[in-house]
Amino acid sequence: MTATTDVLVVGGGSTGTGIARDLAMRGVDVTLVEKGNLTHGTTGRMHGLLHSGGRYAVSDQASAEECIEENRVLRDIAGHCVEETGGQFVQLEGDPDEYFEEKLEGCRECGIPAEVLSAEEAREEEPYLTKDVKRAIRVPDGAVDPFRLCVANAVSAENHGARVETHAEVIDLLGDDERITGAEIRHETGPGKRSHGKSGETEEIRAEYVVNATGAWAGRIGEMAGVDIEVRPSKGVMVVMNCRQVDTVINRCRPKGDADIVVPHETTAILGTTDEEVEDPEDYPEERWEVDLMIDELKRLVPILGEARTVRSFWGVRPLYEPPEVGSSDPTDITRDYFLLDHEERDDLHGLTSIVGGKFTTYRMMAEEISDHVCDQLGVSATCRTAEVPLPGSEDESVLDAGMDRFGLRSPVARRSTQRLGSRADEVLSSVEPNPVLCDCEAVTRAEVRDAIDQSGTDLNAVRIRTRASMGNCQGGFCCHRMASELHPEFDEPQAYAALDDLFEERWKGERHALWGEQLSQAGLNYALHSATMNRDRDPADREEAIAFGEFDGGQRGD
Amino acid sequence: MAIEDDVTVVGGGIAGMTAALAAAREGVDVRLLSHKDSTLKSASGLVDVLGYLPESDGEGPLSDPFEAIPQLPDAHPYRTVGVEGVREALAVFDGVVGDRYRGDHTDRNALVPTHGGAVKPTARYPASAAAGLASDDRSALLVGFETVTDFDAPLAADHLESAGVPFAARGATISFPGDFRVDAKITRFADALDADERVAVQGDGYTTELPVREALAEAVKPHLRGAERVGFPALLGQHRPDEVRESLEAELGAAVFEVPMGPPSIPGMRLEGALTGACREAGVRFTTGNPVVDYEEGGRAGSEDIAAVRVERNGAAIPFHADQFVLATGGLVGKGIDSDREGVAEPIFDCHVPHSGDRYDWFADAAFGDHPFARFGVETDDDLRPLDRRGDVEFPNLRAAGAVLGGHDFAAEKSGAGVSLATGVAAGRSAAKEVSDS
């Protein structure tokens, strides 16, 4: 099987989907391939902070300036993905005054609105802050939903004619020592299991130009091309709480250190993070001390975190990169800046560029720069419009308001749905009757789940990231099977159950790091519901051998 | 004057109520203390005894649970009470529930379809589920309702067939007749069926009113196509399930059964009602709505007895004195076993709960792996008295029953209700005997 395209983008994270959207809007024919589902790598494993730039205002002012610029752009073009929470850099008694002053000065130098709050003012804004607060700097940090944003980019790219192929892994690059001319991909599908792309086959995609936007995995693609890309993957843990202990982003105002941020995100608060260099972006230890460190350190900022319910933890891998001559030994010293590696310039290999480093907040800017570069190579003169044109769902706030009216502002379910769907709310919510709630924790209705299935097929993890279904307190115990039921009868029974098993395992994986107290009790309940009540752990349909039904109680008919 | 009973049972689930009932029937004064709704509301209402042996990957289901009990590990609660103890407890249960449950005509397990589309082995099943047994070869139609999202009848029917059941299964999803809210709870449907409320039904160009049982049968008829039995999610009446089922059977000309569901479980609530009734009849006093938080030691010098448990009410701690106590507070799910980042504990008496010091040893990596947390609970001597870390009895007058006991994984084995019944009866009788002997 063969396909052709102008540009092949490898990687379905924020940068890859951003590039696909940008190029597609400029009229370039784009194909994007991602080995997992969208956001599968780094993007889906961040804490959801929309940087104001304050975090880098002392250490990395160039990044800080980019952040504040893009922060403003994303509020404009992706309103339905951003929550304007604001943020505080909190100084505790004993934290250095000089650094506080430097931070404030740095923010002002970088054009980041910054205001000093007294201890009283800080605690008035965030009542759960510790009494040890000395003062704080208020900055326009925000919370962003990376899943929704990434999906919106992909949908926009498709609307402009791009092909977006998930569960499609690059297994080889096409071309020779001088020029890359495409890639061979393998669709991760098979009869009776999944049906995203074609059924379990490989495909050659021939392209004029290939963009390697695989972040921490960039070295892998580099190897296939015979070039050396020294990404330095660095892991960080995030701990998810069951409710929002804070409504603004709380940063600890000190030079640097692990466990210094709490980000409110939808119904949760996310604690972060560590910074540990790892060898392999896919295989690294997920350790207990990291989880404990988050709680023990951050409860010094927000004491109730020590007693609060933790629902799960997850780890992300930063795609850090620094030019070989720098040689930092500590990953926290490595710049958060991004680098465009043109392999023609660098390695005499035509047709391939890699983008490495960078951070989520500036994904659009990175995409713009690399799209400019690709357009140069292809001789395309169109200019970038991604900073002006809203993403799907954010086009028109009045549509959102109308949708909220129509579905009743009093209903928290409708409010959450319209917030998630943005301007698509009316279209989606009116598509299914009746429309009961499938996920009670996150108030996700059947219509939203079906809409997500229309977009992503049997991959319930892709449904999850689009809707937040199964991401609440119960971690899917009460709703995974309801979500899987929505696949049927469009998809057959084995596909629906395989999808259920996948989602259930995925939810379990992160919950393992929060198994004490309330969440262990919840895990016990989930396990009992699925094992004792449904017998999913020893489901007779999974057995090789048939059950001898005749040996069991046949009932007492006729009584 | 102090509150004083012969036996005080802490916990209102199957184990607690069975212990209280068994003790009261021995002629002693019994009080049962319970805080919140028991986990019966979350359980299916099936009474499992033993469906699989531990670590029996790929083996089972067991057709005869009694035969398998002697093969269980020594630490298993069934080994403490013995096969006879299990049989005696089932006899108590059968007497309490009467016609409401089936399965006592044979030692063999029944295979009951679950709302997840699998079948599972169980020893006693509600009469309402009896026509649904998987060993029965009559063709079945499963009926689901659009807004009852836990049960997808066509998918469940397909899945039953892929398990090789000896009957043809089909599924249909219909709208529950009448003008019910999209978010109506299943108890609302059950109430409507109990009362046979009249509901508005759309006909061909007209609207009419029908009793809801008849309207439901009419909605099912076009899908019947000769099916000999019809299964619904378990919502066919909270209080008059037999009557609801008989009405539907008469209208449909087919047997009708319920498929047990998760929370809120109407069969679980019916069972709770039956047990509560039996306890009240036997003279058990109930004190509910407030948590037992700790205990008072015996007043006599050198005594290790518990003198009283303390219930917290409006900030005050009220002592309930008794001669003997039964701990039936449930496991991790029922909060009879508690934990934090550092360890696992039994919160009222601080009884020893064996566990690893590293919380990463509490679980297996796979969702359905062999989880140590599933076995968390107290260890006991052969009189069900909890043991401390040295293996000595914690308190001479405290026994434990049900999910607070360690050493078994009720979810994997399908043994939850059976363990609660067997240890409840044994603990209750033993406590009463102690009172009578003293």
TrEMBL record, chain A:
Annotated BFD-like [2Fe-2S]-binding domain residues: 438-486
EC number: 1.1.5.3
Database matches in Pfam families: DAO, Fer2_BFD
Domain FAD dependent oxidoreductase: residue ranges: 6-363
Gene: glpA
GO cellular component, one term: plasma membrane
Entry keyword set: Cell membrane, FAD, Flavoprotein, Membrane, Oxidoreductase
Organism: Halorussus limi
Compartment annotation: Cell membrane
Record's protein name: Glycerol-3-phosphate dehydrogenase
Reported cofactor(s): FMN; FAD
Principal location class: membrane
GO biological-process terms attached to the record: glycerol-3-phosphate metabolic process; polyol catabolic process
Entry keyword annotation includes Plastid: no
Listed pathway(s): Polyol metabolism; glycerol degradation via glycerol kinase pathway; glycerone phosphate from sn-glycerol 3-phosphate (anaerobic route): step 1/1
Automatic annotation (TrEMBL), chain B:
Alphabetical list of InterPro entries matching this protein: FAD-dep_OxRdtase_2_FAD-bd, FAD-oxidoreductase_2, FAD/NAD-bd_sf, G3P_DH_GlpB_su
GO molecular function, one term: glycerol-3-phosphate dehydrogenase (quinone) activity
EC numbers: 1.1.5.3
Domain FAD-dependent oxidoreductase 2 FAD-binding: from-to ranges: 6-419
Gene3D superfamilies registered for this protein in UniProt: FAD/NAD(P)-binding domain (3.50.50.60)
Flavoprotein as UniProt keyword: yes
Enzyme class: oxidoreductase
GO cellular component, one term: glycerol-3-phosphate dehydrogenase (FAD) complex
Tree of life domain: Archaea
The entry's keywords: Flavoprotein, FMN, Oxidoreductase
NCBIfam families reported for this sequence: glycerol3P_GlpB, PRK05329.1-5
Name this protein carries in UniProt: Glycerol-3-phosphate dehydrogenase subunit GlpB
Organism expressing this protein natively: Halorussus limi
